[in-house]
Design a protein that fits this description.
single chain; Immunoglobulin-like; 4 domains; six-stranded antiparallel β-sheet
């Protein structure tokens, strides 16, 4: 298409034998630069004439993502029509550099709440069934992944993400970068699909071994009714299968409560009963709804009773007394709410509007910050304080940036070495985070700086970091105002 003049006409012949990814890429280019003029069907092929609207440039060479600098996902083709059961996903891979590991792709379909609806994993292979360890740089291959929706999946929008890992899906996950160099996390969003209602209502499940509750025209089936333990601030997953025994005319909600030993509500959470409004349910429609109940981090650690009630559209409960589901044991987390009496370098920075960096300290246990050697470890202490739990679990990073702007050492982990996820922080909680940042073996001589911050390891992106005056910091990171120098590295 490149180089053709405006008003030029092209015939596009779509054959069932064509590779789905190639078909999608060609159509994408034609529809981006031209308009359909006519269409005809000859045998099994569809012939479409396009007229170019504007001068064309070079063909697109961008991709979805590059994983670990090794494997490029050139394109992903998802179903355009709503899905109901089994559906294909078409992928095109290309190696950037040859690696010794056989890479493994996992596709995960998630609902709007992030719950996994379907997951499929398989090795990345070429057409001769060779794994990526046998590929040469520039080799490419198409792959088809068949995915299936579980029964009773709620209709609505679902997101498909891809992950690449080593060792048949149990090894390290590779980070992904976009064409602009932006870090995308370890889960790359491929796009969205629409889940349609089943062609016929599914009907009631077998609830013989489950707890059942009748709420007017709705019947609830709760599979897991065993007592549960959950750490303070964590989420408790409770799936419920609902069946409409007659057509519903209103949108209902569900109210969850944690009751203390006296039966009084200690925590309450009300949400819509399902993302697919109940007013659209047909008689005998049956859907499994995954509920996430976040245990308030301020709640005392003890035993509670989990109870539910269904609310009509006017907010009135359908049951006079809430229905008991199970016993919940909330386990305590070690928390501190006092800032250290002495902070070497006080700060006033806010990340994402809810996390505060109150200060830091920097030291080298056996040397000077001005005479660092490759292999030396820099001791970093970051003082965090939260206004409450975050929606995402953020990863703390500390990177040692050299005179050429490249990193020569880094630490990336959850706060307090994983003991204090940000999604579990209580209002006012203080986390004193100790990290050891090692100077890389090949670090050149010169001036260095340590940059710190937080990011979302799953999807990429950093929470905005602003100072006390409300000014946003560059790259949403702080360059610690302490001079460092490597004196024993390469010139």
């Amino acid at each position: 298409i490149a180089g053709l003049a405006p008003s030029a006409r092209l015939w596009y012949v779509s054959s069932p034998a064509a590779a789905p990814v190639t078909t999608a890429l060609v159509l994408d280019a034609l529809e981006a630069t031209g308009s359909e003029v006519s269409r005809a069907t000859v045998g099994s092929a569809v012939i479409t004439q396009f007229e170019l609207d504007a001068p064309t440039s070079a063909p697109r060479t961008d991709s979805v993502a590059t994983f670990g600098g090794q494997l490029k996902l050139v394109a992903a083709v998802l179903p355009a029509a709503p899905i109901e059961a089994v559906f294909p996903v078409y992928l095109r891979w290309q190696t950037v550099v040859a690696g010794p590991e056989d890479l493994y792709v996992t596709l995960r379909l998630q609902d709007q709440g992030g719950h996994v609806l379907s997951e499929v994993g398989q090795p990345v292979m070429n057409e001769t069934i060779f794994p990526t360890s046998a590929w040469s740089p520039g080799d490419w291959a198409d792959a088809t992944v068949q995915m299936a929706l579980p029964p009773r999946t709620l209709p609505g929008t679902a997101t498909l993400v891809a992950m690449i890992s080593e060792a048949a899906g149990v090894g390290a996950q590779l980070g992904a970068w976009g064409t602009d160099g932006e870090f995308l996390g370890v889960q790359v969003v491929l796009g969205e699909v629409q889940v349609s209602p089943p062609s016929a209502p599914t009907g009631e499940p077998d609830c013989a071994d489950s707890q059942t509750h009748q709420a007017g025209p709705l019947r609830a089936c709760v599979d897991d009714v065993k007592p549960a333990t959950v750490w303070s601030g964590d989420r408790l997953a409770v799936p419920v299968t609902w069946t409409a025994q007659q057509t519903l005319l209103e949108d209902m909600s569900i109210r969850w409560q944690l009751l203390d030993a006296t039966g009084a509500p200690a925590q309450e959470q009300t949400t819509t009963l399902a993302a697919h409004p109940t007013s659209r349910w047909r008689t005998h429609d049956s859907y499994t709804v995954p509920y996430d109940l976040r245990v308030d981090p301020s709640l005392p650690a003890t035993e509670y009773t989990l109870a539910l009630n269904v609310l009509a559209s006017d907010g009135e409960p359908l049951w006079a007394i809430d229905q008991v589901v199970k016993k919940i044991q909330v386990l305590p987390r070690e928390r501190s709410f006092e800032l250290p009496t002495r902070i070497a370098h006080p700060l006033d920075l806010t990340l994402g509007g809810v996390v505060h960096l109150r200060g830091f300290d920097l030291a080298v246990p056996d040397g000077s910050l001005q005479t660092l050697q490759p292999g030396d470890a820099i001791s970093i202490t970051l003082i965090w304080q939260g206004d409450g739990p975050t929606d995402l679990d953020y990863t703390v990073f500390a990177h040692l940036i050299g005179p050429d702007g490249n990193p020569y050492g880094q630490v990336d982990r959850f706060p307090a070495n994983g003991a204090a996820p940000t999604s579990t922080w209580a209002p006012g909680q203080v986390v004193v985070d100790h990290l050891l940042l090692e100077v890389a073996a090949g670090a050149p001589q010169g001036a260095y700086q340590v940059v710190v911050g937080m990011y979302d390891a799953l999807r990429g992106g950093r929470p905005p970091m602003v100072d006390g005056a409300g000014q946003r910091l560059s790259n949403d990171q702080l360059a610690l105002p302490t001079a460092l120098a490597v004196s024993g590295g390469q010139p």
